[in-house]
Amino acid sequence: MTKNSNRGNTPSGAPALDFQQMFDESPIAFYSCDTHGFLTYFNNAAEILWGRSPVIGEDRWCGSFKLVHRDGTSVPSEETPIASLLLKGEQPVKREINMLRPDGTFRTLVSYPRQLLDREGKLRGATNTLIDISEQEKDHLKQATLSAIIKSSDDAIISKNLNGEITSWNPGAQQIFGYTEAEALGKSITMLIPKDRLNEEEEIISNIKKGKKVDHIETIRIDKWGREIPISLTVSPLKDASGNIIGASKVARDISDRTRADEKQARLSAIVESSNDAIISKDLDGTILSWNKGAERIFGYKENEVVGKSITILIPQERLREEFHILEKVRNGISLDHFETIRQHKSGREIPISITVSPIKDSKGVIIGASKVARDISYQVQAQTAREKYTRNLEVLNTVGKSISENLDVQGILQRVTDATTKLTGAAFGAFFYNNVDREGNTFRLFTLSGAPREAFEHMAMPRHTEMFLPTFVEKKVVRIADVRNHSSHGKNAPHFGMPNGHFTVVSYLAVPVISKSGEVIGGLLYGHPEPGIFTAEHELLVINIASQAAVSLDNSRLFEQVKSLSDKKDEFIALASHELKTPLTTIKGYLQVLAKKEQDELSELFLSKSLNQVDKLNTLVEDLLNMSRIESGRLDFNIEVFDLKLMLGEIIETFSWSSPSHEIVANLGQTPALIEGDRQRIEQAVLNLMTNAIKYSPRADKIFVSLEVVGAVVSVRVRDEGIGLTQSQKEQLFTRFYRAEDTKGISGLGLGLYLTKQIIDRHNGKIEVSSEYGKGSEFCFSLPLKIEKIKKRKAV
Amino acid sequence: MKPIAMKEIFIVEDDDGIRELIEFLLVSQQYSVKTFPTARAFNKTVPGEIPDLFLLDIMLPDGNGLDICKDLKKDTATRSVPVVLMSAHADISRMEGADDFIAKPFDVDELLQRIEKQLAGS
Description:
The complex is a heterodimer. Chain A is an alpha+beta fold. Chain A has 5 domains: 134 residues, Beta-Lactamase, CATH 3.30.450.20; 107 residues, Beta-Lactamase; 90 residues, 2-Layer Sandwich (Beta-Lactamase), CATH 3.30.450; 177 residues, Beta-Lactamase (2-Layer Sandwich); 153 residues, Histidine kinase-like ATPase, C-terminal domain (Heat Shock Protein 90, 2-Layer Sandwich). Helices cover 39% and strands 25% of the residues of chain A. Chain A contains 23 helices and 28 strands. In chain A, the strands form 6 sheets. In chain A, strands 2-1-6-5-4-3 form a 6-stranded antiparallel beta sheet, with helices on both faces. A 5-stranded antiparallel beta sheet of chain A has the order 8-7-11-10-9. Chain A has a 5-stranded antiparallel beta sheet with strand order 13-12-16-15-14, with helices on both faces. In chain A, a hairpin with a 4-residue loop joins strand 12 and strand 13. The longest helix of chain A has 61 residues. Chain A is elongated, with a radius of gyration of 64 Å. By secondary structure, chain B is an alpha/beta fold. Chain B has one domain: Rossmann fold (3-Layer(aba) Sandwich), CATH 3.40.50.2300. A 5-stranded parallel beta sheet of chain B has the order 2-1-3-6-7, with helices on both faces. In chain B, strands 4-5 form a two-stranded antiparallel ribbon. Chain B is globular. The interface between A and B is medium-sized, with 23 and 20 residues.
């Protein structure tokens, strides 16, 4: 391509050579045309810009391949800058215009069209200067985009120079660090850096200076208010046009949320992993998405065996519908709480579990699956079952225990034990055999039987000393056999070789020894059933328990019998002894009386009288002893009659005046009779005891006081002395058997008087009380119900 | 040879001392007395022999005064003969038809009075 060949006539009027050369070599694209718009001249720059060489006199208006609008549509030729100027007569105007070049690239141009006038001012054509502004345009766009990005970024985008002075600050930076652009510009970047991390910045700067980029370091920065903010930081060197590093751009992202989310995530996964519960997630179709260690442990499958499989592999066939309902609920956003059901282990074993199912939602709240927490409750279920069982057993034991402990009769205890245990074990029959083994070991004695008529056993020999029975009675062993037909000794014993004819068929067999505290086998509880495998370990335990209770009761019963017999013997002995003592007393008294009737000298008379007195005392003591033993054995009989207590008191007082001249008896018995219903002799004894005591325990006084008073339906008798009195502790023990106050050593007695008195009063539905001041005297008061005369009652009605 | 007016009393008492004392007391009061130390000895008496009063101790080595009394009161021949029981056990719940009861040790005078009373009433 030669310039000259392309060149047409020089514009008319233009300086010849000088201008021609100037235009040709100008770096600015320039061309001219005639009044019709046909190109007359274009320079090199224009040729380069257009990317083509137009033909002088042919190309019109412009030498470009195509002029286009910004949207890419073609600009019609009449609207090109030159056409607008020449055809429409518009004023010359600077215009931006886009051009498509033959190679397909675009250029943005500014065109400066001008009318070309000759010296006379006549229009001769037009010129156009084209300036390529494509590069500027591109830069501008880039700038604008970048700026918009920087402005709208949530990240802090900061630039700084190598001194660390902040040179730019975007709204994101303000958002994160709190400083406004105005506050931050010109400040040192170190204001964002915690003191302990200042060296970090030095390192960053040193990297930047070397032209190295610092990528995504996670660190801490501080905001305007001193709060620490976890950030992710990217720092890149800033270079000027010539490539010199002049600073750094810094992009900081606040990762607090991410940190929190990460921590939460980490924590959650740690919990999920370490949980003993199975934590499983599944989608809405029931496909397993995740599987933790707990799930592995409970269900036996490894994670890789189940993820992607259907959850139904865990569900027993008959419970598949359950899962359908569960998924239905999950789809509706409903959680399922602690639903107890059965699932299946890899091995097929069923596992009782408690499950909680919750819907899983994505960030938009759409339900995408379910999380399932399953807890193995085998232990709880077992514990619960065991608890229920034990409660039941305990109740049975209690019932049996109560009935056998209430019972002190051996036959009763054993019958109840046999009945209860036969029922409990589900045995067809049960029996208790006493351990009466003779030297030849031929018999155990049937004592009680349950579940079968006794006659069915009676014509048969007792179980013999065979291999099956021996351990229970001799070695104290519990024997439980699921099927005796398989037992080694079965059918080998003469004379029956198996069960005797007519005997109940026994296949299941259980035998438990009843062992006393002393270790002796009292007997054995034996159970039988015609079917095999009836008796379980639990039955065995239960019977052992009851047997041990029964043993205790039997021991107690035996002990009670022994004690009772001892006590009976004692009472018998006392009765006999007192009887035997009275016999010689009778003779002594009789002969003394015979003697006393004979004429005597004074001294003999005195001695005889004293002797008779002592015989009476001795008799009273023996009588007290006898009465005590009668009370103890519950054999104190009463001869009940109605009598006047006032009259009786009068007679007693009169007798005392004779027999006890040491004390004056001051009596105040009132005027009205006091009829009571009771044993005259016993009441008399009670009064005598109180009066004798009053005299006995007031050796220094010379009076005792006896009074009778009727108040309402009760008669009270008071016997008061001015004697030695009683202390509080003495008062408390006064009415107990054989009690004698400590300071009464000089005064005779067995300590039975007040005991007997109280017993007599008590048995007459009365009350006896004592009030006393130590050293000053005592007062005993007993009260008895008055006999309401029937006649009076009738009258009253 | 006993005088016709003499009342006869049979005593059953196992204790020698008491038996001798009572015998002494009653003989002193001009009663005719026959004593038996055991129930067996008493039962051996000739059936036709009937005293004016029986004085029976309750506790006997080979029997019981109450049982003897019961038999005597059943027998038409002896039914109307007064029976007085004696015992060291002060309380007697059953009397088996006996006419009186004397507790041991007894008062000598009281014993004689009660026997006299029974004989006077028969």
